[in-house]
């Protein structure tokens, strides 16, 4: 992997909560800070393009994500994304067949102790380096093809689609 291109779109991984009533905003991307603190041994760039909860990501936003990735020279791309519509975005990105793209996020904000953010990022980094070109989702310690996974909202995890 020459350099990892990271595209950030917001989601829970970057959320900042202000009170116990779930008043939040999507803050600065956390992945650069996380990778810096972990002292990773690869080069990366972070392109923050939107800051939205994934429930608010539109078809136009998905096209912006696709166009942004298509415009990069990088063949290895990691996308941080909210979990609620991650699968839909992955399906849009599947038209980019010449690179390996892995989407990941978090079920708890990266700023929270015990967040799954670092683990999911680590899984995604390993996946993006080792998988053939295509689009994948890395969540809950697994790597999924977008057509074969769904978010189980009640259980708050990703699982095989029926």
Mind sketching the topology for me?
Elements: E1 4-10, E2 15-17, E3 24-26, H1 31-38, E4 44-52, H2 59-70, E5 76-80, H3 86-93, E6 100-104, H4 117-130, E7 134-139, E8 142-144, E9 149-152, E10 157-160
Parallel strand pairs: 1-4, 1-5, 5-6, 6-7
Antiparallel strand pairs: 2-3, 7-8, 9-10
Protein name: Asparaginase domain-containing protein
Pfam family, one: Asparaginase
GO molecular function: asparaginase activity
Which CATH class is shown? Alpha Beta
How many extended strands?
A: 10
Question: Whole-number radius of gyration?
Answer: 14 Å
Mean pLDDT: 92
Based on the coordinates given, report the CATH architecture: 3-Layer(aba) Sandwich
Order of helices and strands: EEEHEHEHEHEEEE
- Kindly state the percentage of residues in helix: 25-40%
Q: Stretches where pLDDT falls below 50 for ≥5 residues?
A: none
Strand order of the largest sheet: 4-1-5-6-7-8
CATH topology name: Rossmann fold
Major sheet: 6 strands, mixed
Structural class: alpha/beta
> What is the overall number of helices?
4
Q: Approximately what portion of the residues adopt beta-strand conformation?
A: 25-35%
